[in-house]
Amino acid sequence: ARFHTYLLPSLIVLELVALGILVTGLFLTYQAYKHAQEERLYEVSQLQRWEEALAKHDTYPQAYYNAAVHAARLGDSQKALTYLQKALVLNGNYEPAKELKMMLEE
Length: 106
Prior knowledge:
Blueprint: H1 2-56, H2 61-73, H3 77-90, H4 95-105
């Protein structure tokens, strides 16, 4: 009986430590999720910004490239490739657009 009484405080401490680790892990997971959500909202707002700019001024390859970057970051490779193609029609030597297009086509 003494053996169990002696171990009980140690087991309680271990359980509390394990619970603390679990809570910390959950908090960090929530923080990562929240950060990912904020990044996605930022990318969506930036893509909308560039699409609005393109609706008014559709002759700037840099604007198509910027829209492509944000579309790619959102996982929409098709939309990104469409914007890159438009950028390259306007300026076939636009290196950033060429490089991103090659990366997306891999």
